[in-house]
Amino acid sequence: KPKLGPSGAVSSNMPKKCVYRLLNTLWSDGGRLRGRQGWDISLRRRPVQRETFQAGDPYHISRREKEELLARWRKEKEEKAQLGITMSDIMDDQSAVGSQKEEESAINLPSTPTPQPQHTDPASPTVATTPEPPPVACGNKVMTRSSEMDLEYEDGRGFGIGELVWGKLRGFSWWPGRIVSWWMAGRSRAAEGTRWVMWFGDGKFSVVCVEKLLPLSTFCTSFHQPTYNKQPMYRKAIYEVLQTAGMRAGKPFPVCVSADDPDISNSVEVHTQQMIEWASTGFLPSGAKGLEPPPAERSPYTEVYPEMWVEPEAAAYTAPPPAKKPRKNSVEKPKIKEIIDEGTRERLVYEVRQKCRNIEDICISCGSLNVALEHPLFIGAMCQSCKNSFLECAYQYDDDGYQSYCTICCGGREVLMCGNNNCCRCFCVECVDLLVGSGSAQVAIREDPWNCYMCCSRNVSGLLRRRDDWTSRLQLFFANNHDQEFEPPKLYSPMSAEKRQPIRVLSLFDGIATGLLVLKDLGIQVDRYVASEVCEDSITVGIVRHHGKIMYVGDVRNITHKHERPVRYDGTGRLFFEFYRLLHEARPKEGDERPFFWLFENVVAMGISDKRDISRFLECNPVMIDAKEVSAAHRARYFWGNLPGMNRPLTAMMNDRLELQDCLEHGRTAKFGKVRTITTRSNSIKQGKDQHYPVYMNNKEDILWCTEMERVFGFPVHYTDVSNMSRLARQRLLGRSWSVPVIRHLFAPLKEYFACY
Fold this sequence. Notes:
nucleus, alpha+beta, 4-stranded parallel sheet, 21 helices
């Protein structure tokens, strides 16, 4: 692995040990991805920021400093207004005196006053200039407010402060937000052509280029109904932005539609549907003009939704209180204020070091005091927002096999990679310096090899104390026990790095060896891969692409207990009972604690009674996963199994092709963003009720080429191009296969149990 040393130079001959990565670099157009296309000469891309500010930012302005500057600005504004009134009164009095007072009036009020930089008594009639605003201190920078703040976003590309917009981030639908100043975001100034956006729903901030912004008036094309039906946070965001739009347009909506309705959530849902209908018809009667921000909200210092600074609850949609009778809890208000003012991780960690606060009372990931549970790996707590981030990020891996995010904060600009071959964890420099000690990151960079805080022999490193029972806590964290009809499946504790062995797999109805491809991509060592497959074309693909490493055993009905344990199955009807038979024959004997995992898949479009019978036999409920979240095609499937974290959120990675256009060859244009489920039938390529082909080429509709279908499924290009196979035959193979990103999502936790390269 390459290493970026203290001097910043990349050396491919340095040992793997601790690899120091600069994630910022990959946001530039010149960054190159690590992976199949030259990972040894480039850096890993930066993960999406998940915090409203980054620890250690030299341009970070604390909340208290913001309030002081805001109070000072308001005071100066009042003085300026008072000065204008005084000057107007004096001019009126002097104009009414008469010609006999002309000379005296000329002496007291010169026609061309000299500008004075100092502040003059506002009662003096000789004042004719506005006092110069005081400079604003920001870290090591001192800037004049009139010269710096007022010129923000003056690049002639629209989207000024206070405007309501739709913003697009990779992996998310178009999301409503509000343009704010960099001062309000508490970060450094946005580059030209970009804007700071505060997102409705969670109140977090992002820098978004203007090409990825649309005005809120494009509601009909930007609003995504499936996301609204599925994600509570999106519903909350739509509710908040339409409430704001209604107030601006002079069309307020009452919260409680029916006073007899005892269920507030139902009232809010009806209320939101009314606002959506109003927005879908063009925000009548004022239209887009009525959505413009009032002059007061165009100021860079105007507070916007102070409640949004409170730690957001991403897991539940809490209805706002009724507008007519707002209820405010006076007891909880000081606590919220404390989180806003002093909730930075640096200050709280300092208090922990001074024995003034218990580390188990703060979220070690972000510094919030609104904790919800204990951190599964280290001594300390975790808030609800960071729990959701941990569920999404803990098992996301880049092309090099390492975690995409910091193990502690699920973010980070610069990360340290563990030098243990069987460990894949990363720790960001900010967390290491803050929790372990100042300068610890530089010490780790020079250490060769560097074992991370989950692998080293010491349990305590500064304030970072590894839990003795972290393995059991981690498995409970991802336990799939959401349904009470069945007992939770047996959970296996993650294996320590030195005890992990290569995996052995029995794949029933293997298809084109998707499981083996994903295991290799994850870097998991495969001791033996036994596959049951009767399709000759599928066997040919598996033999050619995996160089004979698959042992084919023919029909599943001929498999006996002498073969290895099963890991996956794809089939319906009576063949399910063959899977059930082999599942019981392959189970470890009583007392054998070696990890034993199984997975069963079927289409969502199945009979209710069949689904109930399968769940009854397998003694667990399925998890529904749709590949549309991580690919350019819809592909909803049920998965039964005991893999760790099967029910964790499905999140797209940076390299996933989420749009059909990303999968097409040069010179071809996609007519649709995503295609419907691709099956073995040729007409499944056609889209919509009018059966349109999904691609334009040379002003004509065209089908998807085989290489493009392979990209849609996540396979390498030309993966099925063997044995002079026809296009229809290759589509049949792909139509029966799994979506590679979905299987990567399911198999990623296995890196905690089996040896890796």
